[in-house]
Amino acid sequence: MGHVLDFRTASMERRAVIAQPTTDTSADDALVSAARAGDRSAFGLLYDRYARMVHGILLCRVPPREVDDLVQEVFLLALRKLDSLRDISRFGAWLSTITRNRANDHYRRANRAELPMEQEEEEKAEGRANDHVAEQEAAMTLAVLRTLPETYREPLMLRLVEGMTGPEIATRMGLTHGSVRVNLHRGMQMLREKLAEKAAPWTERNARANKASGQNE
Amino acid sequence: MKDDYLWDGSGEPDPEVQKLENVLGRYRHDQPAPAFDQLVAEKPARRRWSFPLSRLSFQLAAIAAVVLIGVATFFVIRVRQEKYSGPAWEIARIEGAPRVGWHSLSANSESARLKVGQTLVTDNSSRASITLDETGTIEVDPASRLRVIASGPNRKRLSLERGTIHATIWAPPGEFVVDTPSAQAVDLGCVYTLHVDDSGAGLLRTTMGWVGFKLNGHESFIPAGAVCATRPKIGPGTPYFEDASASFRDALAKFDFTKITPQERHALLGILLVDARKEDALTLWHLLSRVNDAERPGVYDRLAALAPPPQDITREGILHLDQKMLDSWWNSLGYGDVYLWHTYERTWSDRTPTSK
Question: Which residue has the higher pLDDT, B235 or B190?
Answer without folding.
Answer: B235
